[in-house]
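#lab-general

N.A. 3:47 PM
ok so I finally got the sequence cleaned up, no stray characters, all 751 residues accounted for. can someone with queue access submit it? mine expired

B.Y. 3:52 PM
send it over

N.A. 3:53 PM
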Amino acid sequence: MRYALWLLCVLAATEGFAQVSGRVVDSQDGMPLIGAAIQVYDRDSLLLSRIATGADGGFLSSDNPQRVSTLKVTYLGYDSTVVHTAGRSDIGVIKLSPSSVALSSVTVTADAHHQNAYSETFLISDSIRSSANSAAMMIGNLPGFKVNWISENISIGSDQNVPIIVNGREMGFQYAKSINPKRIKTIQVQRFPPGQYSDYPILINIELFDNYVGWDVSGNAVGMLSLRNRHSNSEAVSVDGTLSATGWNTYMSAAYKRKQGYEASSYIRDIAGKYVEETSPIDRENPNIGIHADEYSLSVGADRRFGDRHLLSLQTWGDFIDNEGEDYYDMTDGTHLINRDNYKSINSITGLFYRDRLADRVQIRSTLIYNYYNIDETRTFIDAADISQSDIDGHKHYLFFSGDGIFSISDKWEATLGYNYTWRKYNSTDNANPAEQFLSKENRNKLDATVSFSPSRTFNIRAGGSMLNISNRQNDITSNHTSWLPRVQLYWRPLTWATVNAVYLNDIYYPNLDQLSTSSWQISSHLIQTGNPDLRSKIMHYVNARLTILDWLTLQYMWRRSNNDIVEWYEPISPEVVRKTFVNCDYLHQYAGLSVDKNLGKGFNLNFVGNYQWYKRWTAGTENNGRTWYGDITATWAIGKTDLTLLCEYFIRHDMEPLPQGKRYNQQENLVVGFNYPFCKGRLSLSGLLSIPVNAIDKRTYTKIDIPGFKYETYGDDRINSFVAKINLRYNFGRGKAKRSSNAYITDTEK
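B.Y. 4:20 PM
back already:
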């Protein structure tokens, strides 16, 4: 309360200072230009400050109007202008005219690229939009971004499958990736954001034009076929639509995916030297592990804008999964063993979002989410002497509220205050016995405060933290825990060609229903699996430092430490039976990496990510070390004046992951060639990728567990799916212009 009163006092005090203000708009349609760069000079042409326009094209400088002589205003794709202030505090409307010089290639200039301690913002030009017909493919045109042409998943350096939010609100990836690039105004990368999204290490925020009027429909079809023995295949189709009118925006997304996947595996289990299970060796020609899954999803939503300051959004989303899986093993003694895992799940979410700009320097936002999840799962074990079946019905109820206030105290100071509340309930029952087997209820209260200081465009520091209280009741046991989660982020550009980013924070991960539930099922005649209701949430200490040189070369070091990492655990419970469960353990992870994203000219671009990682996991009496080395190099070539782009990528990874009771090995290698070609003035695009088998490493995977009374070794072979063809066909059509925006919002839920 004292902190809030102090902020209000500061805000009131700042109102008394003279400031220079105005708005920057397009000279043709009067639309605001967000992120326009403004340089403020005095009478001696000395640079006083650099500022950028906000969501309404407005700007506010804390410089004394009597000192200010001129403003230089620039915006990508527009002719710059110089405004003489003549001592005025209100400059009024500044109109910029679109540049008559066409951009021949995708470029990002200094004025179109802004960075601070926690975010990196790109202003989107027509040249960036021109070669893409979806948001995901357009993002892939930006420096430092990489997009998979088939899945359209986005990577930033070593961060894979980066989530997307739109206009500061979460949404489903299927809809976000399909947004018409014409609607997109800016792309912002947020690293370890405070407030509502503090659980994300990195995310992409797509800012749309607030005044887009029109409609868009996007259809997408994706297919995959394994060319080696035709084992694995999948197909997916989706359709997305947006209708925007004055004050209103509605949107929908529907998708279906069918997957048929196969793998090959074998194992040896030895229980006290008395019971030994050994399968036949791996046969890649006849894979023994298969799944068939059908997935359906649907989301609809609407936004209502009240004036320029108020926005209300409502969305509901749901998906349905029908999964059938079977593991079949030929044993060396001539018998057979079968494990079946069949389940149907329903996941439904309803979210309400409200945003209000109370004043030019005060913004509030709030979110209310309800999520219901149900899974009906049947696990069956069959061998020569036994048939065992468990039929479990699991439920999750999840209620989340978030409220944030953002206070721009001055051009140099900004504060964020937030409160999150979460209520979560897990329960499961055995359908053969209706009595409730497991019940877990949890309340989380989280207070978040952050202060940001930016004395110049080359330096920014952001510091704060969260106070988190977790009250949990599992069956008849109640616990209460409070944690302080600090966070410090730094951005510094000491030289024009060098940038330093550093962060320290605490991150938290919560155990899921499977990990907590006491429900059990049989894996083999002598092995069962169950959850652990005593698991604690994992709090991870995190340090990350990045040095970027010449905007295309990045060196990175990362350090992570936790006392409550969640891992698998094996324990003999009788001379004949071993239980597989989950426990907390100590964990240390370090990372040193190098990334390159370099435009070589004439349509050639080179992207490289390489790193070395080392790990340690330990408990009382156990300690194991591990390491990973990783390399991914991608070259793309946009051929001359054509729209055809070719790709060649080579990826290799070798993991030796430490477990408290053993080690897990994983080897991956992939060589991919592909193409992307837009038709019909960019409305239709076709992408194809071919994965070619290579054998620099053998690509075998295996896990080894060795404890008194139990030894377990399992083997896999990734080569079964190393020869794969994939194709993506997308078609967009619609009509619209910058009169009203799409404000899609889909909630994220705890997995």
